[in-house]
Amino acid sequence: MSKRLLTLFVLVMPLLSTHSFAKTETSTTQPLNVELPEVGKQLRFQGPARLESVLALAIEQNVSLQYSLSTTLFDKSERAEKSSTALKNSVLNQMIQHNLVAHPFYKFIQKQSFAPRVLSAIDVDKVRLNKFDNPLLHGNYVLASPPREEKVFYLGNLNSVYSAKEQAGIPLQRQIANLKSNIGALSTPPVLIYPDGHVVKPHHGAWLTTLYYLPPLTLVYVPFDSLEHSEMDQDIVRLLTQLIPNSTKRPR
Fold it and tell me: What span is annotated as the signal peptide, if there is one (predicted)?
């Protein structure tokens, strides 16, 4: 998708306080750039801006912020990009060492974008009403807010990356039973990665009896080996928490 560049010149007058004087001149004049992958646009501010202002302008550009659990601000600074790229390359190299270069999950990781999370589960009303949820931003970010879809994604040690429809909200054990003809029997307990980046690691046996709730857009990662002893699987889980949702790259 070609990106249209939306340049918005926003004049920001910072509120001075005793803490303001501690800020460096660079931080108070540094511009703010926010990518909006859902609409292929970018917001550009001449100086720092509050999160509330960013969200308001994103809404004007038809970004849906209705599913707060999936609304996330990702760090796209040079340092953050180097960190995520290093982790992604490490995961791919470990998969090569395990002879998984032809695996569908290897190809999935290759084409995805990743970045560290700055803020997760952003709620527009909370940001507007609570100053502590409305930070002053400067630098480079991605604001991802995929619309709520009644889907749960199964990926990892499977023969494909599955998008399971009409399964959101159904307990994990029942979902796996419903999908057995597609995903087969699981050899290792899955790991749940919620849209806000929260990770749940069901213990062996417990995931068959505990009613784990799966909200829409949850990732269910099936490890290639025992998670406790597999550095590769642990790194994959870390990487998946940094996955930038993109409707053009998501499994159908």
Answer: 1-22
pLDDT computed for residue 16 by the predictor: 31
CA dist 101 and 87 (Å) reads 17
Contact, 39 vs 145, CB < 8 A?
no
Q: Calculate the CA 161 to chain-centre distance.
A: 17
Residue 133 sits in the same domain as residue 222: no
Verify that 180 and 221 share a domain, yes or no.
yes
**Mind listing the pLDDT tens digit for each residue in 136-183?**
999 999 999 999 988 889 999 998 888 888 766 677 777 777 777 777
Same domain, 33 and 124: yes
Q: How far is CA 222 from the centre of its chain?
A: 18
Nearest to 232 by CA among 114, 100, 80, 111: 100
Domain count, the chain: 2
Question: How far is Cα 151 from Cα 165, in angstroms, rounded to an integer?
Answer: 5
Tokens coding 100: 């998984």
Which range has the top average pLDDT, 20-29, 106-115, 151-160?
A: 106-115
DSSP secondary structure code for residue 192 in this structure: E
- Give the pLDDT band of residue 204 (cuts 50, 70, 90): low
Q: Is 216 in contact with 148 (CB distance < 8 Å)?
A: yes
Closest CA to 12 of 42, 57, 74: 57
